[in-house]
Write a structure and sequence with these properties.
- The chain is an alpha/beta fold and about 190 residues long.
- It has one domain: 3-Layer(aba) Sandwich (Rossmann fold).
- It has seven helices and seven strands, in the order ααβαβαβαβαβαββ.
- A seven-stranded mixed beta sheet has the order 3-2-1-4-5-7-6, sandwiched between helices.
Length: about 190
């Protein structure tokens, strides 16, 4: 089935947990993985994998199945991901349990967190729990957290809260130019302890 249709179905089934009606564009995906060099002791953690719009670019640079962990909540999307990316470790789970999922996965130290979760539409308490999970990996050092925010939601309270949370701990974000070829247009935001 077409990736756009799969994504739209996931959105219609659960609009509170899927932040868009269309997967990330190739331009946004490439910006999200820019500079990433995964390996077993510097693995990539992808939160909110969706249909794999970013994963298909990650699979080109991930050297083996011990260098990537994808976490997705939607069971139908997880089945799709396991079919489309059989050599990548995909786990159905909630991002509020990221550290325990990682521990059980057997994947090595996380060096990169690629976050595609729709913080703008998540309940505040859920967003806060996820950020605390991200913080645990960042505190271990040598880790980069990268997410994106849509231009139209950049000043929503939950978007500002995410940036303030990360800024207070890891300084000002590295913000990309507006990626206008994405629907809707978006910025990537990165914080690093590398």
């Amino acid at each position: 089935m077409n990736e756009n249709i799969e994504f739209l179905q996931a959105f219609l089934k659960n609009p509170g947990k899927v932040g868009s009606i269309k997967p990330s564009s190739p331009e946004l995906a490439q910006k999200m993985i820019e500079g990433i060099e995964p390996r077993k002791d510097n693995a990539v953690l992808e939160l909110g994998v969706g249909t794999g719009a970013i994963t298909k670019f990650l699979q080109e640079i991930v050297p083996d199945d011990r260098s990537y962990l994808g976490i997705e909540l939607d069971p139908d999307l997880v089945q799709l991901l396991k079919r489309n990316f059989p050599d990548m470790t995909m786990i159905r789970g909630n991002a509020v349990n990221t550290t325990s999922i990682h521990q059980r996965s057997g994947i090595g130290k996380i060096g990169y967190i690629i976050c595609c979760l729709p913080f703008v539409s998540l309940p505040n308490e859920v967003g806060e729990k996820i950020l605390l999970e991200v913080d645990k990996f960042m505190q271990q050092g040598n880790c980069t957290f990268r997410t994106f925010q849509y231009a139209h939601g950049y000043y929503f309270p939950s978007a500002i809260k995410l940036r303030e949370f990360m800024r207070d701990r890891y300084g000002k974000s590295k913000k990309s130019q507006l990626i206008v070829k994405n629907v809707p247009p978006a910025y990537t935001l990165s914080w690093s302890t590398k």
